[in-house]
Amino acid sequence: MVPVADRFSVAFYQRLFDAHPALRSMFPADLGEQQRKLVDELAFIVDNLGQLPPLVERATDLGRRHREYGVEPSHYEEMLDVTMYALRSVLGDQVTDEVDTAWRLAYRLASELMMQGAKASSPAVDNFD
What we know:
The chain is mostly helical. Helices cover 71% and strands 0% of the residues.
């Protein structure tokens, strides 16, 4: 995905704000840095799928930070749909059933870790169960 990272991040945020306009206020007006961060985090997750300790550490920390931005559990499912849409829009037929399944499994692992990090950052609020 590296050669199409810029196209992916643009497609991701366009789809996100088209499908969920209320989420736009959670992001800066200039998305340049945000687009880079998205691609960097996805690359880290993919690169570390076989190395659980760094993946757990990074994803749980990411979840804690996203909690501070106002991310709620329902947003994770919405992001999966947006991620898969953006992947298909830039990779087209390269997103085979196997690729789709692999991305969904990786996303689910990362999002579960992120939600655990969010829950740990505010145990008094239990909407991350």
